[in-house]
Amino acid sequence: MKSLDESVFAIVGLGLMGGSLALALRAGAACKEILAVERNDDVCARALARGVADQASADLALAAQADIVVLAAPVRTILAQLPEVGRQMRGGAIVIDLGSTKQEITRAMASLPASVQPIGGHPMCGKEVAGFDAADAQLFRGAVFVLTPLARTAPSTLECAEAIVRSIGAHPQVLDPARHDQIVATTSHLPFALAALLMTTADDLAHQDELVFALAASGFRDTSRLAASDTQMMSDVLLTNRRNVGNVLRDYGRRLNRLADAVEREDESTVNAILQRAAAKRRELFHA
Questions:
Q1: Distance between CA 67 and CA 85 in Å, rounded?
Q2: Which parts of the chain register pLDDT below 50?
Q3: If phi over 0 gives left and psi between -120 and 50 gives alpha, with beta otherwise, what is residue 287?
């Protein structure tokens, strides 16, 4: 395996994540060359003009030139791309993804040609805005970057993936794909679903009362922020982690009903216990 700074990267998808990775690799002089596979011709042109990529094309055949292929599309697009990417890749090349769910992707990676070295990845960072224009070389700095090796993943491939993660300022965390998906269902996917439902609940009321959004202050703005996330990406996330997301949504529903019942009964003790536990944990974790 070549050293990282002598490696050629092919980044498939120059949206927020793929674009940020290209910028971070370029800023840190962490690789020899960056090839961009991107179906949007305008994004390809801008990536070349800005020096973010050395070559850019909509053709997945570009992956054949790479030592390391990074799949940075929505999860179900990654699943569709994997067979063709596997056919294009040179022997010994590494493929890693940036998808937000890991079980379905790593299962698909297991079917790649034996000559290809696969490993799953998920940087625990992002923005509620999408696209190449939102890309940021500092996006990964200080973030946890989960790596989910397969049984067939060579130790040298994991070492290479960890080196990539460190080169962009993130911290590698090796996890089993099932454990990853169970955790992020609560910490990432549930918050998005709640923000989306909060927004639609308020919008329904706004059809009856024109002052609803006029009275919405910073609490509503901050709590609903994730509802503006890329909907294709988040739909893929929810549906490819459907069992865990369904379970955590139902668990949240039970907790919500308990709070609703306590409020209606004027059960101040129960209401305060719920609120105080939540406030104490939030302050402990985030010092605010």
A1: 13
A2: none
A3: left
Structure tokens at 57: 């094309």
CATH T-level topology, domain 179-286: 6-phosphogluconate dehydrogenase C-terminal fold (1.10.3660)
Segment 52-91, tens digit of pLDDT:
999 999 999 999 999 999 999 999 999 999 999 999 999 9
> SS3 for the chain, per residue?
CCCHHHCEEEEECCCHHHHHHHHHHHHCCCCCEEEEECCCHHHHHHHHHCCCCCEEECCHHHHHHCCEEEECCCHHHHHHHHHHHHHHCCCCCEEEECCCCCHHHHHHHCCCCCCCEEEEEEECCCCCCCCHHHCCCCCCCCCEEEEEECCCCCHHHHHHHHHHHHHCCCEEEECCHHHHHHHHHHHHHHHHHHHHHHHHHHHHHHCCCCCCCCCCCHHHHHHCHHHHCCHHHHHHHHHHCHHHHHHHHHHHHHHHHHHHHHHHCCCHHHHHHHHHHHHHHHHHHHCC
For residue 288, the model assigns a pLDDT of 63
| Cβ pair 25, 52 in contact under 8 A | no
* Homologous superfamily, domain 4-175: NAD(P)-binding Rossmann-like Domain (3.40.50.720)
Domain spans in the chain, listed from the N-terminal domain onward: 4-175, 179-286
